[in-house]
Amino acid sequence: MKRSFRARELTPPGRGAVSVLGLEGPGALAAAAALLGRDVPLGRPLLARLELDGEFVDEVLVVAQDAQHCELHLHGSPPLVQRVLAALDADPDERAQVALEERAAALLPEAACEAAARMLLDQSRGALRRALEALLALDDRQLDAGLAPLLDTERVARALLRPSVVVLAGPVNAGKSTLFNVLLGRERALTGAEPGTTRDILREPALFGDWPVIVCDTAGERAVGEASVEQAGQQRARRAAAEADLVLWLAPPGAAPPVPPGEPGPRTRVLATQADRAPRAGAISALRAPEAARARVHALFVEALGLPARAWTPGAALLFEAELARALRAARGTPALRATLRRELDFGRPPAAAPGA
């Protein structure tokens, strides 16, 4: 049976503290009530248990404006989001028929940094719409080539909307906590000559130039006794590194091991530290030259993630929705691409400009 409502993820896809699903159209409120197994009040939030297939999976904050507009606030777990969308019989790639400009404006309150807010503001003023209209005006031979640069902007938009996770790893006394404090611009982690000062993971938001990041300071690698607190910290550090967008392996003079165990992956960069003790090519000293150390890390970050040094260009069109990017990629090289562009441009109408805007 065809659904009479639409469901979509309002927050940027990926891991986060909270994911918000929007249900819109006739039957939205009834679908939320059926999912939760209880009535949903209008005009006031409701905290409810969510059970799927008889299993408790989360506590959900439900906000219903009216019978056709409802939001579900979940914990920010992509598998959980996909499971809830599946329970709603919703296609995770389907977007509600709302104008591009309105969808960009809806993300503005959650912008992770100034550059993200400025980028979304440009899209809310029609930057992406104008780019799609220009593509549609191209002939068939030019269309695919013209689409490629726009598809590349999804990576930039994703890095602006979802802070990248950068893990500082390496042997004990490599200068991880000192560099961590330098990158944050404040004293957050304890530092000292005693090995094993950091036992657990410290996570803090920061900016690498314009780019929002979460920097993680981790326990240093060295041989320790089994079942020790320090060993548990090292295991957490390895798990964090496995899930990071970028791992900076800090290598002080005479480090053992000087490089990460095994072959460094594509997301790992080795960074020589403590240049004040032993000058080496490319080495930094977060203690003696913090500004230079910060600049070096920022450069490694944009190089490793394939990002431009400047995050925001005024008026530039960026593919800020992963769903739209996937739809365009899937249609690329086929007659369906023009239909996909037309359908996207037909979603709603751009909001009228405010007087004097």
Secondary-structure-based class equals alpha/beta
- How many structural units, i.e. domains? 3
Largest sheet: 5 strands, antiparallel
Shape, principal axes of CA atoms: globular
Summarize this entry quickly.
This protein is of the alpha/beta class and 357 residues long. Helix content is 37%, strand content 20%.
Structure description:
By secondary structure, the protein is an alpha/beta fold. It folds into 3 domains: 6-87, 2-Layer Sandwich (Gyrase A, domain 2), CATH 3.30.1360; 100-161 and 321-346, no CATH class; 164-305, P-loop containing nucleotide triphosphate hydrolases (Rossmann fold), CATH 3.40.50.300. The chain is 37% helix and 20% strand. The chain is built from 11 helices and 10 strands. The chain has helices at residues 28-36, 78-87, 100-107, 114-124, 127-136, 140-161, 176-184, 229-243, 290-305, 322-331, 336-346; strands at residues 6-9, 16-24, 46-52, 55-66, 69-76, 164-169, 202-208, 211-217, 246-251, 268-272. The chain has a 5-stranded antiparallel beta sheet, with helices on one face. A 5-stranded mixed beta sheet has the order 7-8-6-9-10, sandwiched between helices. Strand 1 (6-9) and strand 2 (16-24) form a beta hairpin. Helix 6 (140-161) packs antiparallel against helix 10. The chain is globular, with a radius of gyration of 24 Å. The two termini are 45 Å apart. Mean pLDDT is 83; it is low at 91-96 and 350-357.
